[in-house]
Design goal:
The chain has about 325 residues and is of the alpha/beta class. The chain has 2 domains: about 190 residues, P-loop containing nucleotide triphosphate hydrolases (Rossmann fold), CATH 3.40.50.300; about 70 residues, no CATH class. About 30% of the residues lie in helices and about 25% in strands. The protein is built from 9 helices and 13 strands. The strands form 3 sheets. It has a 7-stranded mixed β-sheet, with helices on both faces. A 4-stranded antiparallel β-sheet has the order 2-1-4-5, covered by helices on one side. A hairpin with a 6-residue loop joins strand 1 and strand 2. The two termini are about 20 Å apart.
Length: about 325
């Protein structure tokens, strides 16, 4: 197995304090290995974006990290405890080691500044001693890297298409050659043709530059083709994690199976689209036991009283699941 570049252990994120706190992320364990694409899927409200903002310490108030750890492993040097970084070191860590492409990123560009200004500001903020000519050359190279002509540097955001603006944001995320790129639903507002182009471009860049990607989306069909591994999130917890091909062929958790049957197969025999009945749980009043049991067609006695641990089941080695249908032989280590 490849070396880990980012480890999340027992991460808990709340909104609010005390008894009124909403537990949006609950004891999440994830490991991102160097150079891989880890997909994170789930319905809206499952905690995916909160997890991304928590591990980068970008949570807006009243969000707070109430427990756990996030460890970054640089190429050279000792591991870094992200949650204990000082403000100055945290500022250096962002963009240089870990960057993020935000949800709705194509609308994140400042409409009154040229693309050149916004790209150059990122480089100058982290490399203040670099020469202006070198920064400009780097900005031109970044645009070419994502398939945009360098002469578009002097354009304003409104002069670019939605797909081009999204590519500019990806270029900005890669400006300082980070080891980890977090992408929070970066293609949601784009049509399927542009989604395919951007994902193909991202896959090529990943192969060329070697960075790891945490790709967050509600569209599991995208992750099946693009990811090396996929983690499924529900009610603030990870409920299944497996290699993408294994998960597509055989989903262990009923929630994962429901997600897979919510979109048509691109190849092979036709299959019935069943979807998932009901709605995601209210995080302010979570059901007892397994959070999915009120919607689960296969729920039985322990599901409504006991929370299943995430771990490796005896009947499916090499993957993790939190479901009483597959008793865990080896829990996820903490």
């Amino acid at each position: 197995m490849r070396d880990p570049v980012l480890e999340i252990r027992g991460l808990r994120v709340d909104y609010g304090l005390g008894d009124a706190a909403v537990h949006a992320v609950r004891d999440v364990d994830l490991t991102l290995h160097r150079g891989e694409v880890l997909g994170l899927a789930g319905e809206s409200g499952s905690g995916k974006s909160t997890l991304a903002y928590g591990l980068t310490r970008l949570l807006p108030p009243p969000g707070v990290i109430s427990g756990g750890e996030v460890v970054y492993h640089p190429v050279d040097g000792p591991p870094v405890d992200v949650l204990s970084l000082s403000p100055a070191r945290l500022r250096a860590f962002r963009w240089a080691d870990t960057s993020i492409v935000f949800q709705g990123a194509m609308n994140s560009l400042n409409p009154v500044h040229r693309i050149s200004t916004q790209l150059l500001d990122v480089i100058k903020a982290h490399e203040p001693r670099s020469a202006a000519a070198a920064r400009l050359a780097r900005a031109r190279d970044l645009l070419r890297l994502v398939g945009i002509s360098a002469d578009r540097l002097e354009s304003y955001p409104h002069q670019l298409s939605g797909g081009m603006r999204q590519r500019v944001m990806i270029a900005m995320a890669l400006a300082l050659e980070p080891q980890v790129v977090i992408m929070d639903e970066p293609t949601t507002a784009l049509d399927v043709v542009m989604q395919r182009q951007i994902l193909g471009q991202l896959a090529e860049l990943r192969q060329r530059l070697g960075f790891a990607v945490l790709f967050i989306t509600h569209d599991l069909s995208l992750l099946v083709e693009f990811s090396d591994r996929i983690a499924i999130m529900y009610g603030g917890r990870i409920v299944e994690e497996a290699p993408a091909a294994d998960l597509y062929r055989r989903a262990l958790h009923p929630y994962t199976d429901g997600l897979l049957h919510s979109f048509p197969a691109l190849r092979g025999a036709r299959r019935e689209l069943t979807g998932i009945p009901g709605s995601p749980p209210d995080l302010r009043a979570m059901p007892t036991g397994c959070a999915f049991h009120p919607r689960c067609p296969r729920a039985f006695t322990p599901c409504d009283t006991d929370v299943p641990p995430l771990g490796r089941p005896a009947d499916a080695p090499g993957r993790d699941v939190a479901c009483w249908l597959h008793p865990v032989a080896e829990p996820v280590p903490r």
